[in-house]
Design brief:
Layout lengths: L2 H33 L2 H27 L14 H29 L8 H28 L2 H30 L4 H28 L5 H12 L7 E8 L5 E10 L4 H19 L2 E10 L4 H15 L4 E10 L4 E8 L5 H15 L4 E8 L5
Parallel strand pairs: 2-3, 5-6
Antiparallel strand pairs: 1-2, 4-5
Helix pairs in contact: 1-2, 1-4, 2-3, 2-5, 2-6, 3-6, 4-5, 5-6, 7-8
């Protein structure tokens, strides 16, 4: 799905959410004011905040679809994460405000007055919210929109909360026991929880989080299956908005290839990865693999065993023996259980003790996409 189609889906889904939430908010507000029910009024406010969230989602989608320019050469895709953060802030504010009002009603209770019409409206709202939530969440996952997915999840929560309001109303009618202020507190806590989770999820996207293993494994597999590639390592993806991923990777190749052959291979890989995954490889580095030295193969196996004997050494790659200079270089992926400086110090000491006549260059890699 291209960016234009994605934008249309986001806007269409958001408009449906706005219309549905405005109607629900209006009906619930009327019922809440007529029945003096704080729980129903807070439910109406929650729906109104959902409508506002959908408006912000539309604005974010429009702005994020702007074409790249001189000032922002990689586009405006990350604006969508900022809009999701604003949505989370609105939800959080609505939850805190609702909690304050609910506590006030517990301290200064006011009798509610429900009738059949109000119960029917609340019950209908539950059904509408369930349908709306599933639809919006499905569309959000389809187009990879964090704002839509969050709105869909929030709508499903709303359906549960509206159901709790309905139950409290029925209990009040049948037993004359008023639980609505307490239900309001529960609703508020759920709203606050949803707001915090939405904010943390969006913050993770902005900061940068570990990529989906399914995607990274697929990219490495696609690269490694292409002869004469002997392995793909150090894959790092840079996200500039939904479906806007750039990446870099190192590949291990026989030391017999010419620069012309390597150039043709890397161009082929870049095209293949883009067509299969949509990821744009901006850089393909190369590790040279010794092919004509039995001594290099023996040393590589021995050093690999020594390095990987440590639990914090997750991967060994990029080994090359320069026999003319008596130098050895390789990369090691270190876990977050050890400081890179500490891990390197241990490895350098062990390698120098095992091969005192050789000079080592050990490069520590970050555990970004090791599977």
């Amino acid at each position: 799905m291209d960016s234009t189609q994605r934008e249309k889906v986001v806007i269409k889904t958001s408009v449906i959410g706005i219309i549905a939430n405005i109607f629900l908010s209006a009906f619930k507000a009327l019922v809440g004011l007529a029945s003096h029910s704080i729980a129903v009024i807070l439910d109406a406010v929650n729906n109104l905040s959902d409508a506002l969230s959908s408006v912000i989602t539309i604005v974010g989608a429009k702005l994020s679809s702007k074409a790249p320019d001189k000032k922002h050469p990689l586009g405006y895709g990350r604006i969508e994460y900022l809009s999701a953060m604003i949505v989370a802030g609105i939800v959080l504010y609505a939850g805190i405000t609702s909690l304050v009002e609910s506590v006030k009603k517990i301290i200064h209770p006011e009798a509610a007055e429900y009738n059949t019409a109000s119960l029917v409206i609340i019950a209908s709202a539950v059904v509408v919210k369930l349908i709306l939530g599933k639809y919006v969440k499905a569309m959000g996952k389809k187009v990879k929109s964090g704002s839509l997915t969050a709105s869909g999840s929030d709508a499903l929560f709303d359906a549960i909360l509206s159901a709790s309001v309905l139950v409290s109303a029925i209990i009040y009618i049948t037993t004359d026991v008023s639980l609505e202020a307490y239900v309001g507190v529960i609703i508020s806590c759920f709203i606050i929880k949803a707001g915090i989770e939405m904010m943390l999820e969006t913050l993770n996207e902005i900061l940068g989080k570990r990529e989906d293993p399914e995607l990274t494994d697929k990219i490495k597999k696609l690269i490694s299956e292409e002869p004469p590639v002997m392995g793909a390592f150090d894959l790092i993806l840079y996200n500039y908005g939904p479906d806007r991923n750039y990446g870099s990777v190192h590949i291990e190749l026989p030391d017999t290839l010419t620069v012309t052959e390597v150039d043709a291979l890397t161009r082929k890989l870049e095209e293949k990865i883009y067509l299969e995954t949509g990821v744009i490889l901006t850089g393909v580095g190369v590790y040279s693999h010794n092919t004509g030295s039995d001594e290099a193969a023996r040393m590589r196996d021995d050093i690999r065993l020594k390095v990987l004997s440590h639990d914090w050494a997750l991967q060994f790659h990029g080994f090359y023996l320069d026999e003319t200079r008596n130098s050895i270089r390789f990369d090691v992926v270190l876990s977050f259980d050890i400081k890179p400086s500490e891990g390197l110090k241990i490895l350098y000491e062990e390698m120098q003790a095992a091969y005192p006549d050789h000079r080592f260059m050990i490069v520590p890699d970050v555990d970004v996409s090791v599977s």
